[in-house]
């Protein structure tokens, strides 16, 4: 889960090269901050200091922008099951859609280190934010170009949609089926493909627009903030940014309580509640709200300068607390500027140092060589593989956990998002913070960092084991075999409704609560009449005169509730605790990379790490999880002869395959951390051996003396 909260587009490197500003220009731009005691300079230009020349204001603006951007990036995952129902998508297709924003992002993120400080970074950040805004607006276009959502096959204008829908009509052919078949045309299929294509295009633009936002923002802060203030500013930035995914699930929880066509409600209203399996929430409204937030946050970036004077004053509360322990900044700067010839020769092979002097073609040619050199490091490779496994777990969980909770425990999409946003995300953030505190306070070295990672992964795996047993089997559905891949035919349905001529493509489930048997429509239960019972704030629909139900009914509309609904909170507590323990490994595993590779390769190693996590985890994992979920489907809806959304799953199979896939990735992460610890112990043993025999000459003398002693011992 820690990877789900990772900085989404962070690639360090030469983006953060320091830009020198002449002292004369700096004094003209800084204003009162640069004068001792905060007094204004007599220069008239300093009487009105611009807020856009303040790095503190930039940190504030960038925190808001990254918060809004990650809220939009994560919003689709909170409404994935709703989008599936609205447009008839399989879980595999929706998983590919959720992962598609990584395609454009991964393709361009490598070139960020090349362009670095050559561009006007604030303006490029603003342009990227505008592109993210356009992507969010484009995601809402399918809602406006599609027909109003019909949860049944009748659409008279003078009565509610399902007034006579799905009832048992004693006729040769059901009119609903004919109307359904007549609605299938080439135009309908073209419109469906256009809708799906628009959403994939929007996700690609969302990834491309997010490329410059975080890398350029971090480098800009690091360039112009005071050396002692920069870590504080970046900590504030990451703390605010980590709230983005949680806010996306909170926004999804609010929006999915509203009906999808809230802007074009049918006359007479609707007789659906959010617990009805046909309910579709206003998924598109969250994209509009997120896009508006990103657009507002992008405005200040077009007024920030390309260069601003480096902050010269340390924050006062930090100075008071750290004046004794912190060394003077000038000393650090002088020491960093003085390098030995050997260090300068080593840095010539560093791609990050070479990038500003290379052309694009030269950069592309040099990159694979440095990439292969970095991947040959065993610690780096194993840490990246372990983080790929953790990220695969997080990507699958973030995308399909809401849908899993809806199906397994019969809860609404809104409540599922609320649980994730209030439990899982906050505890994962706490896990990251705790991991950082442990590394800082205990001053953990590589060996202890590896041990902490192994312990966190092991505890996470142990907490995942009970999840296999926290659920119950699917309730009985009339006429549907609980074997994936089979489709029900009319001959499989009970004989009590043979005279009804029910349409095979209709879906309006009713539940016989006395026997816990669910019927796909009232027609399949043999119901011939419908009653609406008015209660405060809502109306409840019942069907009567049902020939397949003991006593003739009445039976309420909607699916049968799960017998395991009470297990949803214990299930989520275990999931959230596991996410927190997995997140504890985030900082120590990151430190293993920084302390394990060569000094000149650290910058590029971290960039390669995030690139590989995108390519190997965040792109394929949602598709893999979606494909696994599709294999557990027992009844597919049909739309114009093609397979659309899945109506019913085998709950036991769904739980075992979804949790089993998570378990598999967690075992992979645990195995990688175990190998890392074994290698670190071997390296530590070798270093101790070298420490006892410091120079080769002494070692040879000792070996020679031992060789002379051997004959004497043999004689004795």
UniProtKB/TrEMBL annotation:
Basic and acidic residues composition bias: residue spans: 706-716
Which Pfam families does the UniProt entry name for this protein? OATP (PF03137)
Region Disordered: which residues?
A: 323-346, 690-716
Residue ranges crossing the lipid bilayer per the database entry: 96-117, 124-145, 190-211, 232-260, 280-304, 379-401, 413-439, 451-471, 567-594, 615-638, 658-680
Membrane topology annotation = Multi-pass membrane protein
Query: Key word Membrane present in the record?
Result: yes
Concerning SUPFAM superfamilies, the annotation shows: MFS general substrate transporter
**Which subcellular locations apply to this protein?**
Cell membrane
Xref: InterPro entries: Kazal_dom (IPR002350), MFS_trans_sf (IPR036259), OATP (IPR004156)
Q: Provide this UniProt record's keywords sorted from A to Z.
A: Cell membrane, Disulfide bond, Ion transport, Membrane, Transmembrane, Transmembrane helix, Transport
> Does the entry feature the keyword Cytoplasm, yes or no?
no
Q: Which PROSITE patterns match?
A: KAZAL_2
- Any idea where the Kazal-like domain is? 490-550
Quick one: where is this thing mainly located? membrane
NCBIfam families (alphabetical): oat
Q: Which family does it belong to?
A: Belongs to the organo anion transporter (TC 2.A.60) family.
The name this protein carries in UniProt is Solute carrier organic anion transporter family member
Origin organism is Odocoileus virginianus
Q: Which gene encodes it?
A: SLCO2B1
């Amino acid at each position: 889960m820690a990877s789900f909260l990772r900085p989404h587009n962070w690639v360090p490197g030469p983006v953060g090269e320091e830009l020198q500003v002449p002292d004369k220009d700096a004094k003209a731009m800084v204003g009162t901050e640069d004068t001792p005691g905060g007094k204004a300079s007599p220069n008239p230009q300093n009487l009105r200091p611009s807020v856009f020349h303040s790095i503190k204001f930039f940190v504030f603006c960038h925190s808001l922008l990254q918060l809004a951007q990650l809220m939009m990036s994560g919003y689709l995952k909170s409404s994935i099951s709703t989008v599936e129902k609205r447009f008839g998508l399989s879980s595999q297709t929706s998983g590919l859609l959720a992962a598609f924003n990584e395609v454009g992002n991964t393709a361009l993120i490598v070139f960020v280190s090349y362009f670095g400080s050559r561009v006007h970074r604030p303006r490029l950040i603003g342009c990227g934010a505008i592109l993210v805004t356009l992507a969010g607006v484009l995601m809402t276009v399918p809602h406006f170009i599609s027909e109003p959502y019909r949860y049944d096959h009748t659409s008279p204008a003078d009565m509610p949609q399902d007034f006579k829908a799905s009832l048992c009509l004693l006729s040769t052919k059901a009119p609903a089926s004919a109307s359904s078949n007549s609605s299938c045309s080439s135009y309908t299929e073209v419109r469906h493909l256009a809708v799906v294509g628009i959403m994939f295009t929007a996700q690609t633009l969302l990834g491309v627009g997010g490329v410059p936002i975080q890398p350029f923002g971090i480098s800009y802060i690091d360039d112009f903030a005071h050396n002692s203030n920069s870590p504080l500013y970046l900590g504030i930035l990451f703390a605010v940014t980590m709230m983005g995914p949680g806010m996306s699930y909170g926004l999804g929880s609010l929006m999915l309580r509203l009906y999808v066509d809230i802007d074009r409600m049918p006359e007479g209203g609707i007789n659906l509640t959010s617990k009805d399996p046909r309910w579709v929430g206003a998924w598109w409204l969250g994209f509009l709200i997120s896009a508006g937030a990103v657009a507002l946050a992008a405005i200040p970036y077009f007024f920030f300068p390309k260069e601003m004077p480096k902050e010269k004053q340390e924050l006062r509360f930090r100075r008071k607390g750290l004046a004794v322990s912190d060394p003077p900044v000038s000393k650090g700067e002088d020491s960093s500027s003085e390098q030995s010839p050997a260090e300068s020769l080593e840095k010539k092979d560093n791609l990050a140092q070479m990038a500003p002097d290379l052309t694009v073609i030269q950069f592309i040619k040099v990159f694979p060589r440095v990439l292969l050199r970095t991947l040959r490091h065993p610690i780096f490779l194993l840490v990246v593989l372990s983080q790929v496994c953790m990220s695969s777990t997080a990507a699958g969980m973030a995308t399909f956990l809401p849908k899993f909770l809806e199906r397994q425990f019969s809860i609404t999409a809104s409540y599922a998002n609320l649980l994730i946003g209030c439990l899982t995300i906050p505890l994962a953030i706490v896990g990251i913070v705790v991991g950082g505190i442990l590394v800082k306070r205990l001053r953990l070295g590589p060996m202890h960092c590896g041990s902490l990672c192994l312990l966190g992964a092991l505890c996470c795996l142990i907490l995942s084991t009970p999840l296999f047993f926290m659920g119950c089997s699917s309730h009985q559905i009339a006429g549907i075999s609980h074997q994936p891949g089979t489709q029900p035919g009319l001959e499989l349905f009970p004989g009590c409704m043979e005279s009804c001529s029910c349409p095979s493509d209709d879906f309006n489930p009713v539940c016989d609560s006395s026997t816990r048997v669910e019927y796909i429509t009232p027609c399949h239960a043999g119901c011939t009449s419908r009653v609406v019972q008015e209660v405060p704030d809502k109306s409840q629909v019942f069907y009567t005169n049902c020939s397949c139900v003991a006593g003739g009914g009445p039976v309420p509309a909607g699916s049968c509730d799960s017998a395991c609904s009470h297990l949803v909170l214990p299930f989520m507590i275990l999931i959230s605790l596991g996410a927190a323990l997995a997140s504890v490994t985030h900082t120590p595993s990151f430190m293993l990379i920084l302390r394990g590779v060569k000094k000149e390769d650290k910058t590029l190693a971290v960039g390669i790490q995030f690139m590989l996590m995108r390519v190997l985890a965040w792109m394929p994992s949602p598709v893999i999880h979606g494909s696994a979920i599709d294999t557990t489907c027992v009844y597919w809806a049909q739309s114009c002869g093609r397979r659309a959304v899945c109506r019913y799953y085998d709950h036991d199979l769904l739980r075992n395959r979804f949790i089993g896939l998570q378990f598999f990735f967690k075992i992979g992460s645990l195995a990688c951390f175990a190998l890392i610890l074994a290698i670190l112990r071997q390296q530590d043993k070798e270093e101790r051996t070298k420490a006892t025999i410091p120079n080769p000459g002494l070692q040879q003398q000792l070996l020679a003396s031992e060789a002379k002693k051997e004959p004497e011992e043999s004689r004795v």
